[in-house]
Design brief:
Elements: H1 2-26, E1 33-37, H2 40-51, E2 57-58, H3 64-69, E3 79-80, E4 84-90, E5 95-100, H4 104-116, H5 123-131, E6 135-140, E7 143-148, H6 155-159, E8 175-179, E9 182-185, E10 198-202, E11 210-212, E12 221-224, E13 229-235, H7 237-242, H8 253-261, H9 263-270, E14 275-277, E15 315-320, H10 325-340, E16 344-349, E17 359-364, H11 371-381, H12 389-395, H13 405-422, E18 425-431, E19 434-437, E20 441-442, E21 445-446, E22 452-453, E23 458-459
Parallel strand pairs: 1-10, 1-11, 15-16, 15-17
Antiparallel strand pairs: 2-3, 4-5, 5-7, 6-7, 8-9, 9-10, 11-19, 12-19, 13-17, 13-18, 14-18, 20-23, 21-22
Helix pairs in contact: 4-5, 5-11, 9-10, 11-13, 12-13
Length: 463
């Protein structure tokens, strides 16, 4: 019997060794360089995502092996971390204790900067600012304590927007900045080591392995971000009072404005057809299906009449960030609509003062899938979006930071409706964020904000 057992054990060992050998042959060899062609607004976030380790990361439910290798936090199955050992709330969510794996002082400093927005742009800080919530961060014996001035339920979602970054620390992630647009792998990074040796970020239009918004190429793959951007029209108080676009005009209204805008044609011309008319501020994939205001105006709009206007005709400032073809196309179409209504457009660059008059075109991407946190992050960035009593009442709802996701969603939809009803923010169209990828480049992951992550990326073919 013992001889039989020995034979069985040898056979099983041979099978296991064969399986391990076959698996090893499939593992990609480390090293190599990947080139990313990214627009200006993504260069900084992409570099920072690889240089600084995230505090929390979302868990991929489809990857069972990854869940076993890096299990989620106890009690929070959607999140995992290389830095945080445990999360626990007290005082109905006003106090949170963060048990950490590494140096608590460094993490506490990083969390203070992220949640307070001290010296750095941070959407979690924007969220708390919009709700008027303050936070005190302290560290003792390996634990970090977060004391909020009001209950905050979605703390894991907020911490996922924070990274281990302080002025006194260098790189904490898998890569370090070696030169302008060049990142190189470092062996002291927190978390699993990356496979690629270096990452080079180049300007749009350059030859690259991954191209943001690239044209369809035979053999190349396409990656879509989890949800699209939203192009919004922001109206100043004066623009709403005068109703420069006729949104409150019974003979034109929101329905007539949409017919005149032709968002579908704008998406076809400037976004390769990867877009659609937007009826809400929150894009599909962030907000559920919900009732939205019924647009007012004529069922069928008469053709726009572009009569010649005198030089002293009323002018409307139309502001936008430069360098976005889709936004430029929207601006040109709005100038036509304004002219049809007897006004000239003065196209300007967006200034630092977000309370300036006129109109502004904003291409907005929620930094998170959570609809309440997404809208609060926008409100925290834009003071001009809270200049309405109904909006202020909606922002004061404590359920926007409830521990219940259903309650947060309901409060977010109320806030969205208040913005639309007030005319402060008018949704125009959605536009996908996509990437054309070399067919040999595998394992690229797109973060919720559309930033490409290369930690698990590798080249399947010889380079």
């Amino acid at each position: 019997m013992s001889g039989f057992r020995a034979t069985v054990m040898l056979a099983l060992g041979a099978l296991a060794l064969g399986a391990l050998t076959a698996h090893a042959r499939r593992l990609p060899a480390p090293g190599g360089k990947v080139t990313l062609a990214l627009p200006v607004e993504l260069v900084g976030p992409a570099a920072e995502a690889h240089v600084y380790a995230p505090i929390l990361e979302s868990v991929n439910d489809d990857d069972a092996a990854e869940r076993l290798a890096r299990p989620p936090l106890k009690g929070f199955p959607r999140w995992r971390s290389s830095l945080v050992r445990e999360l626990a709330s007290q005082d109905e969510g006003k106090t949170w204790r963060v048990r950490v794996e590494a140096q608590s002082v460094n993490i506490s400093d990083a969390l203070a900067r992220c949640l307070k927005g001290d010296g750095t742009a941070s959407w979690p800080a924007d969220v708390l600012r919009a709700r008027g919530v303050t936070v005190d961060v302290s560290a003792t014996q390996g634990d970090v304590t977060l004391r909020f001035s009001a209950p905050v339920g979605p703390v894991p979602e907020l911490l996922a927007g924070c990274s281990l970054r302080t002025p006194q620390m260098g790189p904490t992630g898998s890569y370090s900045l070696f030169g302008p647009g060049l990142l190189r792998w470092r062996n002291a990074g927190l978390g699993p080591p990356a496979l690629l040796g270096s990452i080079e970020i180049v300007a749009p239009g350059a030859r690259a392995d991954l191209v943001a918004g690239g044209a369809d190429v035979k053999g190349a793959g396409t990656l879509l971000a989890p949800f699209p951007d939203v192009v919004l029209l922001l109206q100043s108080a004066e623009a709403r009072r005068v109703d420069v676009l006729g949104l409150a005009d019974p003979a034109f209204g929101v329905r007539g404005f949409r017919q005149a805008l032709r968002a579908d044609l704008l998406a076809a011309a400037y976004a390769q057809g990867r877009g659609a008319v937007a009826e809400g501020l929150l894009p599909p994939g962030v907000a559920p299906a919900r009732p939205l205001p019924e647009p007012q105006g004529p069922e069928r709009l008469a053709p726009l009449a572009l009569t010649k206007l005198p030089a002293d005709a009323p002018r409307v400032a139309l502001r936008r960030e430069e360098g976005d073809a889709l936004v430029d196309g929207v601006v040109e179409r709005l100038a036509v609509i304004l002219r049809n209504r007897g006004r000239l457009a003065s196209i300007e660059r967006v200034a630092s003062d977000d309370g300036a008059g006129g109109l502004e075109i904003l291409r907005w991407r929620p930094p998170t899938r959570d609809p309440a946190l997404a809208l609060l992050s926008l409100a925290g960035r834009r003071k001009d979006l809270v200049a309405d009593p109904a909006v202020q009442r909606a922002l004061a709802n404590p359920l926007l930071l409830s521990a219940s996701q259903d309650e947060r969603v309901a409060a977010a939809l109320t806030l969205e409706r208040a913005w639309i009803d007030a005319g402060l923010a008018v949704p125009l169209l959605t536009a996908d964020r996509w990437y054309t990828v070399d067919p040999d480049l595998r394992g690229v992951v797109l973060r919720e904000d559309g930033v490409p992550l290369m930690f698990d990326a590798y080249f399947a073919g010889a380079r």
